[in-house]
Amino acid sequence: MTLPWKHIPILAGEIADFILTEPDGVYVDGTLGLGGHAKFFLSRLGPKARIVGFDKDEEALAMARENVSDGRLTAVHASYTQAAQTLAELGLPKASGALFDLGLSSYQLDNPARGFSLLRDGPLDMRFDLSASLTAEKIVNEWGLADLERILLDYGEERNAHAIAMAVMAARREGKITTTFQLKNIVERVVRGRGKIHPATQTFQALRIAVNDELGCVERVASLLPDILKPGGRAAVLTFHSLEDRLVKTRFKEMAAGGQWKLVNKHVVAPSYEEVRRNPRARSAKLRVIERV
Ligand SMILES: C[S@@+](CC[C@H](N)C(=O)[O-])C[C@H]1O[C@@H](n2cnc3c(N)ncnc32)[C@H](O)[C@@H]1O
Question: What does CATH list as the number for 118-212?
Answer without folding.
Answer: 1.10.150.170
